[in-house]
Structure formats: structure tokens, C-alpha cells
Design goal:
325 residues; alpha/beta; six-stranded mixed β-sheet; five-stranded mixed β-sheet; 11 strands; globular
């Protein structure tokens, strides 16, 4: 099983699709050095004439040079890793509209004017019974579910479900959250959250991962509810949480350094000096020998030394700012 990735490059009114069987886990790395480096990287992959669906595609990016728009999604290890990547992309894609594709492939096909259902079969969004929701307690949850109680208070729960799972469970989940015992305080920042307000019949959701189907509201079971989709902004739910159940504030500096550690400088292009060496006469009675492989420059799809230097500079500046906060 590979980590399948799909890329789309739009330029001069035309678009092409590319595919990698293994690169979904490094899409963020491939984007960090900016539009030119990302475009070279994606075009170095195999061009295809089909779309992956949300099941098989584990990461994707669309680079639209005409509208200076970047759409991307990929899994990250933590909220801090996602926030660090977003901060760097803001610097290295300056002047571009950089957006996380919360609706997965639906956001990419919608951007191209093809609708959101091109890669999805009818009835693909499955609902389920929410029994057993509060059977376990998580101090490092995937997400946080909270509900406004009739007395105006808020009950919150650290959940191992992804944010969209709470919507797939339907409104019956609300009573389970309200009846659950107090959840332990969080020790790590979750990757998403859902807040239910039964009186206002409003669902508020944020996430730093995909929430496929979020733009097909109302989802099954929520026909008379209003959706307040917050994208990656967790601050609304943070303001609603009980005082003894706050979101942690993980430092970004460590996550930024992790990104920097993942950078590898490309090998210098030695083709010129080595070609001269190969053509130089050897000592009397001998023939100069140079390994032909050494004449091949570094992979052209890699970031150039200048692009890497600019990227390192952007990360260093962000680390300095993060440590000063």
C-alpha cells in the first residue's frame, strides 16, 4: 500500500494531472520552497488522465499559476506541525492565495469548475449510530466535541474521532456528550473540534485535516441545523470551552525546527568541472577516467540552492518570532 498523491498544475488556461504512488506523506515538504520548486517537483511525476478519489488519494495539491492559488491537503503528525507548515507557506508563497483543501479532492475539482462530486459516488457519506462515544477518555485526543447545555454551560469531551465523524453520528450524539462525565484536561492540542448549540441549532466545526463533504451541507440528519465552518480557526471553540478544559498552546518553534531538519541541500552541479576533467589529457601513457554518473547534475526537480537558502531564511525568521512570543 503506497501513500498515493495527486497533483494538478494550472498554467496559461490549461491544466495537467500528475500522480505519485508514494509521495502523499511529503507533499508539505515539496510545497515549502515555493511555487517554482513545487511545480518542477510535481511535473517530474507521471502525467495521468484520471482522478483519484478521497479513499485512495492521501494527499494532493493544486498549483494554479493563472489565479495564483494553492490548494493542498495532507496528513500531518500534529496541530503544531500543520500550523508550522502554514506559517512557512505564507512566507514562501507570498502573493498567493494559500488554502488547505478541507473538502479533499472536492475542493480541487470545484476550483477547476468540475463540481465537488466528480470523484464521489452517490451515498458516499455514511452515517452511523453514535453508541459508545464516551467509553474512553483521551488527554491527547484527535478532536474535541463540546455542547451548550440548557443552563448555558458547556460540556467538552476529548474524542478519538475525527471531526467529521461527529457529524456522521448525527444529532443523537449531543445527548451522549451532555451525559458524559468530565473529560480529563488536554495535554496536547487536538487536530479539530465540533461545538453543538442545540438551542440555536448551530454546529461549529474547525479542523487542520480534511473534512470531506463539509460543503455538502446539510449532511444527513442535520437538515434544520446551521453550519458555522471555521476552517482551521480554533479560537471560537477555545472561547467556549470551560475554564478547566482549555486548549493547550504548543510552541511552534519546535515544529518549525522539525521542518528545517527535514530539508536536504541538493548536491552541487559538478557537470562542468567534471567534463573538463574528463577531457583533460592524463599522464603520459595513461587515459583519464571519470565515472559517467558523476557528470549528471542533481535532480532538476529538487529545490535549487537559492530556493533552499530562501526557505531556510524564512524558517529561521519564523523560529525567532515564535521564540519571542
Amino acid at each position: 500500500m503506497g501513500a498515493r498523491a495527486q497533483y494538478v498544475v494550472v498554467e496559461n488556461g490549461a491544466w495537467q494531472r500528475y500522480y505519485s504512488h508514494w509521495a502523499a506523506n511529503r507533499i508539505v515538504d515539496d510545497l515549502l520552497a515555493g511555487p517554482a520548486a513545487a511545480t518542477r517537483c510535481f511535473r517530474a511525476n507521471r502525467e495521468i488522465d484520471e482522478w483519484l478519489d478521497d479513499v485512495w488519494c492521501e494527499g494532493a495539491a493544486l498549483v494554479d499559476h493563472d489565479r495564483r492559488t494553492l490548494l493542498w491537503f495532507a496528513s500531518v503528525d500534529s496541530w503544531a506541525d500543520h500550523a508550522a507548515a502554514r506559517a512557512v507557506l505564507t512566507r514562501t508563497w507570498r502573493g498567493w492565495d494559500v488554502r488547505f483543501a478541507h473538502d479533499g479532492m472536492g475542493d480541487l475539482t470545484h476550483h477547476l469548475g468540475l463540481g465537488r462530486d466528480l470523484t464521489r459516488t452517490p451515498g458516499w457519506f455514511e452515517t452511523f449510530e453514535p453508541s459508545g462515544f464516551a467509553s474512553s477518555e483521551y488527554t491527547e485526543p484527535c478532536s474535541v466535541a463540546s455542547v451548550r447545555l440548557p443552563d448555558g454551560g458547556v460540556r467538552a469531551w476529548g474524542s478519538d474521532w475525527e471531526p467529521v465523524d461527529h457529524l456522521a453520528a448525527g444529532p443523537r450524539l449531543i445527548d451522549l456528550i451532555a451525559a458524559s462525565s468530565a473529560s480529563p484536561p488536554l495535554t496536547d492540542m487536538p487536530e479539530g473540534g465540533v461545538h453543538f448549540d442545540p438551542q440555536a441549532r448551530t454546529v461549529s466545526l474547525w479542523a487542520v485535516r480534511t473534512v470531506a463533504g463539509i460543503h455538502n451541507w446539510p449532511l444527513p440528519g442535520w437538515e434544520d441545523w446551521v453550519l458555522d465552518f471555521r476552517g482551521e480557526d480554533h479560537t471560537r471553540q477555545a472561547a467556549l470551552l470551560p475554564a478547566d478544559f482549555p486548549f493547550p498552546s504548543p510552541p511552534l518553534a519546535a515544529a518549525l525546527r522539525k521542518l528545517a531538519d527535514g530539508l536536504t541541500a541538493p548536491l552541487p552541479d559538478m557537470s562542468g568541472p567534471l567534463a573538463l576533467a574528463a577531457g583533460a589529457p592524463g599522464p603520459e601513457g595513461t587515459t583519464a577516467v571519470v565515472n559517467p554518473a558523476a557528470l549528471v547534475p542533481h535532480e532538476p526537480a529538487d529545490p535549487t540552492p537559492a530556493e533552499l537558502a530562501a526557505l531556510r531564511g524564512a524558517i529561521d525568521a519564523l523560529v525567532t518570532e515564535a521564540e519571542a512570543d
